# Entry
Amino acid sequence: MSQLSNRRTFAIISHPDAGKTTLTEKLLLQGGAIHLAGEVKARGQARRARSDWMKIEQQRGISVTSSVMTFERGGITFNLLDTPGHEDFSEDTYRTLTAVDSAVMVIDAAKGIEPQTRKLFEVCRMRSVPIITFINKVDREGRECFSLLDEVADALALDVSPMSWPVGMGGQFQGILDLATGHVSRPEGDSREFLGKIDIDPELPVEVAEEVELASVGYPAFDIEAYRHGDLTPVYFGSALKNFGVAELIDAIAKYAPPPRPQPSEAGEIAPERDEVTGFVFKVQANMDPQHRDRIAFMRMVSGTFKRGMKLTPSGLGKPIAVHSPILFFAQDREIADTAQAGDIIGIPNHGTLRVGDTLSERNEVRFTGLPNFAPEILRRVQLKDPTKTKQLRKALDDLSEEGVIQVFYPEIGAQWIVGVVGQLQLEVLVSRLEAEYKVEAVLEPAPFDTARWLKGAPDALKTFADFNKTNLARDRDGDPVFLARSAWDVSYQQERHPELAFGAVKER
# Structure
């Protein structure tokens, strides 16, 4: 039980450019996991975030895949899942959010709630994931605090409870007031960073003192139960770049964020205290080490104490596999894990045996639920530059669809395979990884289809539909039937004509 209570598995979510990667680095620095934060610049080769290891990430200066970083601080084991901040990666981000117990939402003080922030928050709300809000970049000119707090409360329908307060903003920035202690963290030197100077008896400017008094009356006090139920968010102001508010944030995660929570399954919720080892695969990543062509399944431990060498049965395979080399991650660095507890994220090397959505357990009696595929919003045909590499292309598309980077559809008529993605940037990732990891050059051509729907129904009804719509039918990599629609109108029209069939925009793994 003490092992469980000392686990914090959380994600950081934000709109692009809100400062998520910088905050990730500073949390790792505070946790002693790194000794020098990477230099984070807006563009070019200087961008080197510790969690961004893929070639395209280094070139573009953005996170395009989730990564896991495990570190310890003050007797607490933190499992930090760094999610892609780019708006085109909602599907990978969603699956990552199924594996965490809490989240930190980063908001730019000048911009407030942005579209991606709202979308990711809704994903958290679906699973009642508790959220701590970090309003970043207060050392720059930004909106007034009350405006930001009210927007969080109104836009996200959350109670807000400020835990700190900026003493001035932008050019007037004089530090961060801790509302619990009354102490102020002060900037020092030409860089105006926080280097440890604490003013324990500060004289606040009159307008700041008035704001603090008004905030204490106007917003509810922090309530840990309301926070853990997803009804209230504690709000911290700070500057990740200048190191303000970072220590307070990591302390808040340790103190308030929940330990491992029960997870939904077909047989009801599975508690972390359960003796049997259970877990689910929420991500598969190929070629983290291109020299070894490896494939790592990221498994969220749900219950039990895992020990190296233990045999677990994947739900998609039906027969046990021995897990000899489980991995703990620090971005692309890794070490062998001898044991793991509920809440931990371990990597399991495999050769295509494990897939996203698989449940692993000792007795093969549990099936975890809630990891969906979304209908793609962009469809493209794949055209090989070298037709002799068809076999390599098929392998690459299967690998990348297994990771969730793309979805691949094999038409019933025609030889050209079709890939589907949720956002445009995934197409660039696809072409880049085909060339870098599989030595396959390909171009993506427009497909005559706008979206896809998974078909479900009685075999006779499916056969009747197929007889009249052969040119619009395909199979996904699982062999399930898919209707490729030329427009949203086409989907509605077919639904009206075939009410006995279900045209699914989501397929749960």
